[in-house]
Task: inverse folding
């Protein structure tokens, strides 16, 4: 089961280390992690995606909750959550036709094109992990030079 | 952070602030060893009332603090310098964490500006200790020290207790600052207590009343929260047989008619049998460790589990509970006592289940085959029980002697038996007995030891002698790493590798060289005299008791098997 866990933590040194260490020492798995400060500079929000069965995810949430530096831990319901990931692709271009094709795909996925060179192009895409995966499959035939992904960040919708 | 502004801010060094803050917490003793990076704190001992108890190895200081903490239920304090001093106490910190023991470990650290430069005696103890502490502080300026100490003690002793590390860079100890000692403070992400759900407790009573073969399983949490009277009242009101985990040994008087003793790998035969037959268990303050329950699946398939624990993360971690009551177990049990009283429930002892329990207990009392020799483990430990006053405190090391203690040394006064049950740290018992004796100088304190474990921290004899802490090391000496030898005999076709201690050292001479009393007991008569002599001695005593190296601890539930599959004496 793919799960998104959102953790509000005290914004101080060493907390990221403790969270990742907890996953390692409890034999849980981190699929992606993103961290950023919140509107209140005393707190940071960590968004972790993880793979595990229901019992494991429950246990992860409890262990995270037990961490003294964590203020709030939520296992987010995908249906009630806005979740996005940013990905930057550097794609190989073999012809001008390739350039047009990649541009078209980028447009179709709502991506932005940057750094257009004779033999490479960069695409910035903000979407769900599935959409990013789908885009990756489509541009693979051109040749992917490099990929950088941020990992998922997420917030629950209001009222849910 | 709400700060008490009424406090007068006094200017002092970080080191003085640390000692002052500890005095405010009621600390009277510190176990430790000085070094370059904690000297400013050590200097403060020359002008404050806290007693410093010098050890010969920092690991022993941490075990002493642990022993002190378990007995007094207030954090024991140990000091070590940076680098190797700090890494030496890691085993002790991990031991305290595994057994939920309150402890404050204070380490010196290289000056802030040197951190990260691989300075002399620098170790990233915060990073290393992270997985085995309840929390760790590293004040980066002198004025942060009082709050770290106040919060550290609060975290260590509340909720599920545990060790807290305070790592103080040398310049933070030396620098002066106006100090505020906060009385009140808030830790936003820390919720040590939950109010037990009364409806769930009510439901638990119904589950126990509606089952045919109910049983109580008391874990270490019962002892930590001192829920002895509540446990006994519930057992007697509902007429429930009581088994314990090994860590819960002595949560319930072991001479009580309803007591069956510890379950587990080396549990009592009657306890394992009845646990394996029960259909509903009231499990109090236990994590259902593998050593206690054998295979997890077999355990939960046949049982309705009511799980009471202070730590919500324990619910469902190892066993799926049918019903959970989260909260301090003493509070939960008090609610249960009250509800039973309100509902005027009082069971009699004539149920078929209880009759069966009694018969099983009787059977094993008569039929468990013991070592035939005069100096068999059972006879030795029963002799010790016979001669020790009931309020005596016993610690153990880790190995065969520990499991024999579990089988044959009955704890009569609850909360007087302590062992490294979670981490299983050899060498824990002797320094822990010294810490226990510091906490309770009024009662005899005995470390039931084996020669293998005792070897690991025997140099604590120097502390016991020089600091006038007259503990008793009761060494069952088979000149072997006995438990490993037993596994090699049982599972490795008697290929004995790395277990022979070669009769070295001579423990009587060793004791005497430290200025302690050393007595060898080779017969029951000699043992009788030795124990009496140790009890009346005002110096520490080592009783060296040679035993048969071939004696196994039985019954034995092999790892990964079910409690009903016991290997019994043939």
Result:
């Amino acid at each position: 089961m793919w799960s998104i866990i959102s953790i509000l933590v005290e914004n101080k040194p060493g907390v990221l280390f403790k969270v990742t260490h907890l996953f390692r020492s409890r034999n849980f798995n981190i699929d992606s992690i993103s961290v950023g400060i919140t509107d209140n500079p005393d707190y940071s929000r960590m968004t972790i995606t993880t793979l595990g069965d229901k019992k494991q995810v429950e246990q992860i949430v409890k262990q995270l909750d037990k961490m003294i530096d964590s203020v709030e831990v939520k296992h987010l319901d995908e249906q009630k959550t806005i979740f996005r990931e940013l990905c930057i692709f550097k794609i190989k271009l073999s012809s001008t036709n390739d350039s047009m094709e990649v541009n078209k795909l980028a447009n179709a996925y709502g991506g932005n094109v940057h750094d257009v060179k004779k033999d490479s192009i960069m695409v910035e895409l903000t979407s769900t992990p599935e959409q990013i995966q789908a885009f990756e499959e489509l541009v693979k035939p051109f040749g992917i030079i490099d990929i950088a992904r941020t990992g998922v960040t997420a917030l629950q919708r209001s009222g849910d | 952070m709400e700060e008490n502004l009424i406090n007068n801010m006094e200017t002092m060094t970080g080191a003085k602030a640390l000692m002052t803050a500890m005095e405010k917490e009621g600390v009277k003793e510190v176990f430790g060893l000085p070094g370059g990076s904690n000297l400013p704190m050590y200097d403060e001992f020359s002008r404050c009332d806290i007693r410093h108890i010098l050890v010969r190895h920092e690991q022993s200081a941490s075990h002493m603090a642990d022993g002190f903490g378990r007995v007094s239920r207030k954090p024991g304090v140990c000091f070590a310098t940076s680098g190797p001093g700090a890494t030496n106490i890691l085993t002790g910190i991990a031991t305290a964490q595994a057994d939920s023991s309150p402890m404050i470990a204070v380490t010196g650290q290289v000056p802030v500006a040197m951190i990260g430069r691989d300075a002399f005696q620098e170790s990233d103890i915060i990073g290393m200790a992270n997985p085995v502490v309840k929390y760790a502080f590293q004040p980066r300026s002198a004025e942060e020290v009082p709050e770290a100490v106040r919060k550290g003690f609060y975290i260590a002793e509340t909720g599920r207790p545990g060790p807290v590390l305070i790592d103080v860079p040398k310049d933070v100890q030396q620098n002066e600052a106006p100090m505020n000692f906060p009385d009140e403070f808030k830790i936003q992400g820390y919720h040590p207590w939950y109010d037990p759900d009364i409806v769930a407790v009510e439901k638990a009573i119904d589950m126990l009343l509606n089952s045919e073969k109910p049983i109580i399983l008391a874990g270490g949490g019962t002892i930590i929260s001192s829920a002895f009277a509540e446990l006994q009242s519930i057992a007697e009101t509902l007429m429930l047989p009581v088994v314990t985990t090994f860590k819960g040994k002595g949560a319930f008087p072991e001479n009580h008619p309803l007591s069956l003793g510890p379950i587990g790998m080396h549990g009592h035969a009657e306890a394992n049998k009845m646990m394996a037959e029960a259909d509903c268990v009231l499990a109090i303050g236990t994590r259902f460790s593998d050593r206690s329950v054998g295979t997890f699946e077999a355990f939960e398939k046949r049982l309705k589990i009511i799980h009471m624990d202070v730590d919500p993360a324990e619910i469902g971690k190892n066993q799926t509970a049918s019903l959970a009551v989260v909260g301090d177990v003493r509070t939960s049990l008090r609610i249960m006592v009250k509800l039973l009283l309100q509902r005027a429930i009082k069971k009699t002892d004539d149920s078929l289940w209880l009759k069966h329990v009694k018969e099983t207990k009787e059977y094993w009392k008569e039929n468990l085959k013991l070592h035939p020799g005069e100096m068999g483990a059972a006879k030795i430990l029963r002799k010790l029980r016979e001669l020790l006053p009931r309020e005596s405190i016993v610690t153990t090391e880790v190995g065969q002697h520990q499991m024999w203690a579990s089988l044959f040394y009955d704890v009569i006064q609850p909360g007087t038996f302590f062992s490294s049950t979670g981490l299983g740290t050899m060498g824990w018992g002797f320094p822990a007995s010294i810490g226990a004796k510091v906490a309770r100088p009024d009662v005899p304190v005995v470390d039931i030891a084996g020669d293998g474990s005792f070897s690991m921290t025997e140099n604590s004899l120097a502390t016991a002698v020089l600091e006038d802490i007259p503990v008793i090391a009761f060494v069952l000496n088979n000149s072997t790493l006995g438990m490993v030898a037993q596994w090699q005999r049982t599972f490795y076709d008697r290929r004995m590798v790395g277990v022979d201690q070669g009769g070295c050292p001579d423990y009587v001479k060793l004791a005497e060289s430290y200025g302690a009393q050393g007595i060898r007991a080779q017969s029951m008569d000699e043992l009788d005299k030795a124990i009496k002599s140790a009890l009346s001695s005002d110096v520490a005593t080592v009783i060296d008791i040679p035993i048969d190296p071939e004696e196994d601890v039985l019954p034995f539930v092999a790892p990964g098997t079910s409690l009903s599959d016991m290997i019994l004496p043939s």
